[in-house]
Amino acid sequence: MSDKKKKKLTPTQQEYQAFAKEREPQRPVLANCLKAFLVGGAICLLGQGIQDFFIWNFDFTEKTAGNPTIAVLIFLSVVLTSLGVYDHLAQWAGAGSAVPVTGFANSMASAAIEHRTEGFVLGVGGKMFKLAGSVIVFGVFAAFIVALIKTF
Amino acid sequence: MCNRQILLDVAKLTPAHVMSILVVSGAVLSGLGLYEPLIDFAGAGATVPITSFGNSLTKGALSEAERTGLVGIITGIFEVTSAGISAAIIFGFIAALLFKPKG
């Protein structure tokens, strides 16, 4: 809680806040980091494997193999999301499964499936970018600014 | 992945905030010319995380701007990333067609 908010509380409330904070279970930061590292690393390792597969078996260079690799990873992630497996993984791995591109696909697919009950236009179409939208908006805007600075 | 988990745990940000921060940092690193060496070193370890999305946005905008000038920044932004976004939209929609939400 920020200091500004704290000032508005009565002493009893402040006391309670301190008491509640003491009882709050500590987040196992180190263990969480290790899990995130392992799962994120495993996903990237899988990506590297797919990329090498494309380079060896088809006419791809290291630069052009990136796109099909990402498409395959997204496909796998959507399949796992549909089967409800990815959510369990995300529960365990935290940022490890959210940060790779599979997490991006997961957020879109899960939003699309979740809001299906609201209809295809308003639910699936409208809510698909509910979580992924912020990533695209901030990414595009940042890229625009950076490119503008670099061009001049 | 590790620093990201710290952002989640210690700074108590939501995953959406963390991902937005990472995309922006990827775009900025790309502008500084630091992301390409990272890809050369780490391979898919650098192209799979979401920071690479920011990198691709900037890279597309810059390369198109070189060819066609100022308008290229607008037209080029999605040039490299279109595969990822299109794939996510198409597969996501198919998934929504086929599957019903689970409790």
Task: Describe the secondary structure blueprint for this structure.
The complex is a heterodimer of chains A (152) and B (103).
Chain A: H1 3-7, H2 11-23, H3 29-57, H4 66-82, H5 85-93, H6 95-98, H7 101-114, H8 120-127, H9 132-151
Helix pairs in contact in A: 3-4, 4-7, 7-8
Chain B: H1 2-9, H2 15-31, H3 35-42, H4 44-47, H5 51-68, H6 71-76, H7 82-98
Helix pairs in contact in B: 2-5
Describe this protein's structure:
The complex is a heterodimer of chains A (152) and B (103). Chain A is mainly α and 152 residues long. Chain A is 78% helix and 0% strand. Chain A has nine helices and no strands. The N and C termini of chain A lie far apart (43 Å). The model of chain A has no long low-confidence stretch (mean pLDDT 83). Chain B starts with a helix and ends in a 5-residue tail after the last helix. By secondary structure, chain B is mostly helical. Chain B contains seven helices and no strands. In chain B, helix 2 packs parallel to helix 5. Chain B is globular, with a radius of gyration of 16 Å. The chains are: A mainly alpha (152), B mainly alpha (103). Chains A and B meet through helix 3, helix 4, helix 6, helix 7 and helix 9 of A and helix 1, helix 2, helix 4, helix 5 and helix 6 of B.
Number of strands of chain A: 0
Derived structural class of chain A: mainly alpha
Unreliable stretches of chain B: none
- Give the overall average pLDDT of chain A: 83
The tally of helices of chain B reads 7
- The unreliable regions of chain A are none
What portion of residues of chain A belong to β-strands?
under 5%
Most extensive chain interface and residues per partner: A-B, 72 and 64 residues
Share of helical residues of chain A: over 70%
The rounded distance between the terminal residues' Cα atoms of chain B is 29 Å
Short description:
The complex is a heterodimer of chains A (152) and B (103). Chain A has helices spanning 3-7, 11-23, 29-57, 66-82, 85-93, 95-98, 101-114, 120-127, 132-151. By secondary structure, chain A is mainly α.
